[in-house]
Design a protein that fits this description.
Strand content: 5-15%
Number of helices: 14
Radius of gyration: 22 Å
Mean pLDDT: 95
Helix content: 55-70%
Bound molecules: tryptophan
Distance between the termini: 34 Å
Shape: elongated
Length: 332
């Protein structure tokens, strides 16, 4: 049976944290078994903000290493760098001919960027959704796992697919959002102020690269209170969050014991955090070490990138040949 094609782009900025792991990566890891997955680091997209070249290269290696250490298997999925696939900018150029300035200027993420960085409103930023559409359509993907913030971009990909098909004949399937949030748990920041995030409060965010002692410190500082005063009281969200974290890292009977203690009003948050810290360390440490080993083994990383690029290019080349033919720019 032919597996459905899934494409997703991974941003190359920032260190991965627990929220990324439990939100996106774990879903990728599940998908790799049942879908034909193309996952890539969106390094061309990163160029819109003119990153320092050395930093960009390091970020790409790191984000790849962290994803592999978290369970993405380069043997099962095509794992590659966007810039290794020249067919992507080729399709991007084609799609730019049917993407209109007016619709691109209306995109909320573009308007945000214009507001935040009025000094750097470059054409790459304006056409960001066109490049993203090329990333997706280049493999004729039908499913794209993305967060809410990217749904508008995906709608544009559908529009461009439709427009292309209308003009040149049925060619691209219309990619749909792959909802990952159904059983995805929201991970809150440890200080109880919103989502765990790489940019907001690094001291309340657990990164996959955090050393044991750092993890211990962050968890011991997590927000708690003086505890429930009546049996089976509803949980404040920051306590609920500790239980969510515990559920992902501790043994079920440990979680159960603390839940009972909470319901009986004799929970000791200090002990609970100590337990959580040790279980979290046991969970993060192998990922951190595996990611570090990979980053130190450039030859291996390069083999992985090459292998991914080969898989991705064979699919991309077929699409480009078909698109050229449809458009009449095939001469041989
Ligand atoms: N724009 C996406 C983000 O910011 C990353 C991305 C680039 C992407 N190309 C993609 C996601 C293609 C899905 C499919 O997270």
């Amino acid at each position: 049976m032919n597996k459905e094609i899934v494409v997703s782009g991974i941003r190359s900025t920032g260190y991965l944290h627990l929220g990324n792991y439990l939100g996106a990566i774990q879903n990728y890891v599940r998908m790799q078994e049942n879908y034909n997955c193309y996952f890539f680091v969106a390094d061309y997209h990163a160029l819109t903000t003119h990153p320092d070249p050395k930093e960009l290269r390091q970020n790409v290696y790191r984000v790849l290493a962290e994803n592999i250490a978290s369970g993405l298997d380069p043997e099962k999925v095509a794992l590659y760098a966007q810039s290794d696939i020249p067919e992507i900018p080729e399709l991007y150029l084609m799609l730019n001919m049917i993407a209109y300035k007016g619709e691109l200027e209306k995109v909320p993420t573009f308007k945000d960027k214009v507001r935040q960085h009025p000094e750097n409103v470059n054409a790459g930023l304006l056409t960001y959704p066109v490049l993203m559409s090329a990333d997706i359509l280049i493999h004729k993907a039908v499913k794209v796992p993305v967060g809410k913030d990217q749904e508008q971009h995906l709608e544009m990909a559908r529009n461009f697919a439709q427009r292309f098909n209308g003009r040149y004949g049925e060619f691209f399937p219309e990619p749909q959002v792959f909802r990952m949030n159904q059983d995805t748990i929201k991970i809150m920041s440890l200080d109880g102020t919103g989502k765990m995030s790489k940019s907001e409060n690094v001291n309340a965010t657990i990164f996959l690269s955090d050393e044991d002692e750092v993890i211990r410190k962050k968890i011991m500082k997590a927000k708690t209170d003086s505890g429930p005063t009546e049996p089976n009281a509803p949980m404040p969200d920051y306590i609920q969050n500790l239980f969510v974290l515990m559920q992902t890292t501790s043994k079920p009977e440990v979680v159960e014991a603390y839940r009972n203690a909470y319901n009986n009003c004799n929970v000791r948050y200090g002990d609970m955090k100590k337990q959580l810290a040790e279980d979290m360390i046991a969970f993060i440490k192998p990922i951190r070490e595996h990611a570090a080993d990979l980053q130190n083994d450039k030859a291996k990383m390069q083999r992985i990138l090459k292998q991914g690029a080969e898989k991705a290019r064979s699919s991309a080349a077929a699409t480009i040949a078909g698109a050229r033919k449809a458009m009449g720019i095939n001469y041989y």
